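Example (one chain per record):
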Amino acid sequence: MQLVDPQAQIIVDFLKNIGLPHDNIIATQDQRAIIGQNLPAYIESLPAHVKQGARYLSKFVVGAGVGLFDYSLNAIWNEVVLDLHKKAIAYGLDIFYDAAIGGKAREFYQTEDDLRSVKDSVLLDTCRKLELISDTTHKKLKHILDMRNDIGISHPTNYTINAFELLGWLTTCIQDVLNDRPTEAALQVQAFILNLKTYTQPLDPANLSSISAKIGALASHHCGNVLRTMFGIYVSTDTDPQVRKNISLLAVAVWKASGDDMKYRLGLTLEGYNTNLYRDKYELGEQFFQSVSGNAFRSNSERAIIVDGLIDQLLEKHNGWDNFAHEAPVADSISSYIGGQQDILQNFAPKFIKVVLICRIGRGLSYCSGVSPRGRVYYDRLIGLLGDQFAPAALTALTSYEIQAQLEREICRQQACLALGVLKAGVVNQRLQECIDFLLANLPTTGKVVFDTRFKTLSAGYIAWS
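Predicted structure:
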């Protein structure tokens, strides 16, 4: 197999004779000899089906044989890019583009042809994230990309590539890319998404349980990729209704197994649908978040608006007819947006705490002690989340006109003490505990205890007394 062009010197002489630069254009004879001795074994190690379509690898061989090493570097990089494109297509373009492209630009990436618009660095980073290539291969390819950008034929340079460098880059291309297969986990994800999009039959409990178990065994970043793609399929207006139903069932397990970062990113995506007036996608996205109990991960600005409106509804239901039945559904909706203390935003905290206490203290009736039985579960849960950060706001709320009017009734004072007991269980600060203990000892007698000089002194560091 003769790979070194014996006419290379003739080309150099021709360039010299017509007055063009001829130094360091073609590699020296000894460098070309190294290529000729080693290249056949490298190429023969490739399976026939890989070699069959590797046109840029052919150009690499031609360039290396002639001695145009910088041209060969460009050629081998192009072969790497094409192979990574094939891996992305096999894995699933929806998942790949979801992982690679963010924001409004995502809608412009749909087909295989759109892969050409993905920057090489983004292609490498996304393939690593999806485990289409290993971390080590990613580092090697990043180095080759840097070399291609710095010393390849597509950029001006005076650097001379030697044969061993070129063969090293070829080795990476062959062993770590052309001969490499995605991880088993990556292939499982691809198969799952492909089947999910086309499976229009209802999932039976056995299938649901089996698939959920396999999802739980995947790495969290794989689950995050699946979650993002499931969300995209769900909000697509042309998705089959049964597919959407299947996703709503499977998404619960995927959501639990995914990291919080992806959940918050989906929350921002949902807000973007609303901001950009994609009404259908927004409504479907709200359904998705509701099905996975994910409202706490919606964006802060959106949650602040929604929760503020729900608080108004809750107070309206509390003061309206048959409040015992009507409070609980609204309380459930509020609770879905507040998974922990971190979800209580400062811009709605005082109003939220005050209304929850109003509902928890109740209307002073003998029936169910004036508190909605179903609503009480939510109120106690929310009060228990307040902790040291929001306990002062709860104590301040007891001084409000509305709650003071409630505390004139003995039953309401009893319920207020129960609420304070729940509050205290989540408080660590000893001074705040002392404030609560003082109220628990004296509140059964009078609701005006919050204005007692002793209580004002105890709470002076937490309540701004005028």
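Caption: The two ends are 95 Å apart (CA to CA).
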